[in-house]
């Protein structure tokens, strides 16, 4: 299982601050892709995709995982080197605004991916094999941190479970953010 990429300096933060790069990295977390495949998916010319890939590659956020030759053309397949991002707490006081932009871009891209995945798999949605939950809670930051740690342990436990003969694939996305004003009255 891949670990989260820890953004430790301003150059790394600047590299991933571009929403297009967040989209590209998110795609490469999900699967390996070529420049051409990425370009088709996001509607961008190969030269522009290649530029963004090189910037991400410089920071070791992505890597070439294999090369394939087809009819004399060499296709390079890129993949993310991690499964998400975390900004080092020592960097946050220096770059709070950039960090907010990065986290916002990442969350928004993840939510777009959820919408797309749900839409593509709507025929599999059933009460017993689907879960969706929206809730607003009041708790301290300490309580939230403890819950978050337990939740991450539970997700890791589920991911590490031995497979049985009735294996299914589940796409799990959880988003929890602090809000200023109540949504539910």
Summarize the structure in words:
By secondary structure, the chain is of the alpha+beta class. It has 6 helices and 4 strands; from the N terminus they run E-H-H-H-H-E-E-E-H-H. Helix content is 46%, strand content 12%. The N and C termini lie far apart (40 Å). The strands form 2 sheets. A two-stranded parallel ribbon has the order 1-4. A hairpin with a 2-residue loop joins strand 2 (62-70) and strand 3. The chain is globular, with a radius of gyration of 19 Å.
Salient structural properties:
single chain, 185 residues, alpha+beta, two-stranded parallel sheet, two-stranded antiparallel ribbon, 6 helices, 46% helix, globular
The amount of helix comes to 40-55%
Structural class: alpha+beta
Biggest pleated sheet: 2 strands, parallel
Number of strands: 4
Strand order of the largest sheet: 1-4
Counted by DSSP, the helix tally is 6
* CA radius of gyration: 19 Å
Unreliable stretches (pLDDT < 50, length at least 5) are: none
**Which strand-content bin applies to the residues?**
5-15%
Give the topology string: H per helix, E per strand. EHHHHEEEHH
Inertia-based shape: globular
Integer average pLDDT? 87
**End-to-end CA span:** 40 Å
Summed up:
The chain has 185 residues and is α+β, with helices and mostly antiparallel strands. 46% of the residues lie in helices and 12% in strands. It has a two-stranded parallel sheet. It has a two-stranded antiparallel sheet with strand order 2-3.
Set out the fold topology:
Blueprint: E1 5-7, H1 10-16, H2 19-30, H3 35-42, H4 46-58, E2 62-70, E3 73-80, E4 85-87, H5 96-120, H6 141-160
Parallel strand pairs: 1-4
Antiparallel strand pairs: 2-3
